[in-house]
């Protein structure tokens, strides 16, 4: 990525890095991807520190590391409860993953979300210079662009949504949905991972709000916003280096030794109901039932670091998975074999790289997922001469780019079971053919490609207004 000499980049996201004290392995793909993009680009990365303070002060803690300045603020407990755990993760997250049965619509959450976004706007506004490009990330911060405009910010502001955009009939259940979408017209550019999420946004904007869409631009009244589908990738180069490193090799050997000649199937997901873990276990159980001859020949390693632990739905999914894995193990295990190794712990990505490489199958079966970077990491970690097979949910954003994976419906235990059998029986030639196409895509459409496409589109979204103090220089 060529570094811009004209304008700085201000990235704003809820999570700037893994909160202190949390397992470093549990941070999600967004933090990982943004760290890589900012390393390339330089600039300021602003967001929540992950820390709680008694009273919001707006005091910014700056740190400079590897050419990137991070600027973080602490939030009050009430902000965290209403904004992060409440509106972001009990209202928007389930709704945007098509789970209106789990979505909670509470005025306190909506109020706390708005208040916290106003606090972010007040705090970051003084850091913004007239020529800066501003890039806001994800569903925690839908109204932030409008709040910055209210504070006189005329910069180019882009917004990227990392999760799916729900179908219009589902979004219609959210109180205040129209106001939320209207506020998004204050952005100059909005990015989605897939054409499908982009189309869903257009469907809502046109049918519920009377917006007009033409040549990739949505118009509502006197506001225009450019829309793009821009799928995020991994830092393929860094990942390849990690895969060749000591930790990856140690992990690979450890897994191979403990597999004792059996084929390993691996799943790696934050412990989240959107990841389809119950359905995955049931699909695997169906495979064990339909193929008793395979029982001692395979095992499933599921790595599932706990996530958003203060939210009740996340505690429920954890309990339910403990019960399900326990039942399956109790039913099918023998003295020398356990069908599921279920691990509630996060691992650094270089260790994951070795684990992915040791697995014959990568089992990635979310019920709905904005992208899913694990699918791409699994491919990047494979041995080119003897690669494993990726089984991927057709409801993950990654499926649009990864057509050579075995694409399945994660709600169907039969399809999961059949795909496992197909992958185990697949010839080496076919594995290499599929992997070569997948790997080509992972390398070409990497995190730098993603960030460059977005930032280039943002620069061109509307003519730049030259800052008065720089005019005539
Ligand atoms: O910050 P957390 O609450 O711990 O959650 C972790 C991240 O989860 C979500 O990740 C999404 O972004 C990924 C990268 O684009 C994408 O591959 C994945 O499908 C999404 O689920 C969330 O959107 C992030 O904001 C969180 O940081
Ligand atoms: O134990 C773990 C589990 C996951 N991850 C990383 O967390 C990210 C998960 O991103 P993904 O897009 O798959 O899902 P998200 O958690 O963002 O919804 C990937 O980069 C994983 O390598 C990790 O470092 N250690």
From TrEMBL:
Pfam families: Glyco_transf_20
Annotated GO MF terms: alpha,alpha-trehalose-phosphate synthase (UDP-forming) activity
PANTHER family the record matches: BCDNA.GH08860 (PTHR10788:SF106), TREHALOSE-6-PHOSPHATE SYNTHASE (PTHR10788)
Protein name: Trehalose-6-phosphate synthase
Protein family according to the UniProt entry: Belongs to the glycosyltransferase 20 family.
Complex formation: Homotetramer.
Protein keywords: Glycosyltransferase, Transferase
Gene from which the chain derives: otsA
Species of origin: Sphingomonas hominis
InterPro entries xrefs: Glyco_trans_20, Trehalose_OtsA
Taxonomic classification: Bacteria, Pseudomonadati, Pseudomonadota, Alphaproteobacteria, Sphingomonadales
